Amino acid sequence: MYSVPLAHRRTENLHIVFWLIKDISWCLMWRTLGMIMIVPTLGAAIFITWRARHIKEDLAHNLAVVFWISANAWWMAAEFYEFDETVVWHGITGRQLALIPFCIGAAILLRHYLGRLAAARMGRLDRA
Q1: Could you say which of 30, 54, 57, 78 is the most buried, measured as most Cβ atoms within 10 Å of its Cβ?
Q2: Whose CA is closest to 68, among 91, 92, 48, 89?
Q3: pLDDT, tens only, 20-75
Q4: Based on the structure, what is the number of domains in the chain?
Q5: Does residue 50 fall inside a structural domain?
Q6: Would the CA dihedral through 6, 39, 18, 46 be positive or negative?
Q7: Residue 1 domain-assigned?
Q8: What is the 8-class DSSP label of residue 96?
């Protein structure tokens, strides 16, 4: 059984703190702090993803989180800078552009779970 080393767990916990500060700033319309917090939130997510890249299960989920934070950050910026309802490209609003990274993250997870399902049906799913 794989266990997360304490140093890794601390990074993951700090990442949650960054994410909460970013989203609280968004909720309270604190534009400067919200925009600043994109950097450590996304940076920590990328670092966590890179560090755990050798474990397929973690890689898929961590990549999905990176894309989720990217989408979330774009949406937040769109609201802060008031282009969330503005058509920015082919009838698509600033907010709707966040669907691109949201869908990429969802596609990564869909591919991961369909791959696991196929492997299980063929009797090759490792239980690690």
Answers
A1: 78
A2: 48
A3: 999 999 999 999 999 999 999 999 999 999 999 999 999 999 999 999 999 999 99
A4: 1
A5: yes
A6: negative
A7: no
A8: G
